[in-house]
Write a structure and sequence with these properties.
The complex is a heterodimer of chains A (114) and B (111). Chain A is globular, with a radius of gyration of 13 Å. Chain A has strands at residues 5-7, 10-13, 19-24, 31-37, 44-50, 53-57, 64-68, 74-78, 87-94, 104-105, 109-113. Chain A is 0% helix and 50% strand. Chain B is mostly beta strands and 111 residues long. Chain A binds chain B through residues 33, 35, 40-45, 47-48, 50, 55-58, 88, 90, 92, 94, 97-99, 101-103, 105-108, 110, and chain B through 4, 8, 31-32, 41-46, 87, 89, 91, 93-104.
Chain lengths: 114, 111
């Protein structure tokens, strides 16, 4: 059983650029959630995807967007990057949207915005 | 006010010590409670769930007090490998199931 994989692991961008982060969910998991973790903080919920639709969103601006594909993998897109977007971006998959399902996190993509 | 509050630490303890972490949460409608462990520059990993009746997993004991909206984690006989950041987590279920994380408490266990 493969776990959650994310790519790239590290990347550096400059202000105003756009970035796409990718996530492959764990085998058997159809739900993907994205979290942002700034240095010294806990992860913050960005949004969740279920059946290729956004299924809930945290307090993030519209320049944060996502997709989920038929194979349940997902992308996080961030436009017009700002310095404060520098963070670890974590993807977590689960076998549904019920609270009974345990989330499995990927190792994250570390974004630095200069 | 943050939804989940934790003392950031660091807690610096010798091997073999007992250490306790506390956390408070603001939303009385929170449904589930967890402690996660996060090693430096790694992803969070589930340490244990927390129940009102209390639960124990080896050297780790977690407790929930719903009336006080307070969660605790006790680590007995600390090991060097326990050095990590411990994240208190509550859940919120509306249109989606989301984890609300505290900022974490850093533990350093010294020889």
């Amino acid at each position: 059983e493969t776990g959650v994989t994310q790519s790239p692991t590290h990347l550096i961008k400059t202000r105003g650029q756009q970035v796409t982060l990718r996530c492959s969910s764990q085998s058997g998991h159809n739900t993907v959630s994205w979290y942002q973790q700034a240095l010294g903080q806990g992860p913050q919920f960005i949004f969740q995807y279920y059946r290729e639709e956004e299924n809930g969103r945290g307090n993030f601006p519209p320049r944060f967007s996502g997709l989920q594909f038929p194979n349940y993998s997902s992308e996080l897109n961030v436009n017009a990057l700002e310095l404060d977007d520098s963070a670890l971006y974590l993807c977590a998959s689960s076998a549904g949207v019920s609270g009974a399902n345990v989330l499995t996190f990927g190792a994250g993509s570390r974004l630095t915005v200069l | 006010r943050k939804e989940v509050e934790q003392d950031p630490g660091p807690f610096n303890v010798p091997e073999g010590a007992t250490v306790a972490f506390n956390c408070t949460y603001s939303n009385s409608a929170s449904q589930s409670f967890f402690w996660y462990r996060q090693d430096c520059r790694k992803e969070p990993k589930l340490l244990m769930s927390v129940y009102s009746s209390g639960n124990e997993d080896g050297r780790f004991t977690a407790q929930l007090n719903r009336a006080s909206q307070y969660i605790s984690l006790l680590i007995r006989d600390s090991k060097l490998s326990d050095s990590a950041t411990y994240l208190c987590v509550v859940t919120k279920m509306d249109s989606s199931y989301k984890l609300i994380f505290g900022s974490g408490t850093r533990l350093l266990v010294r020889p």
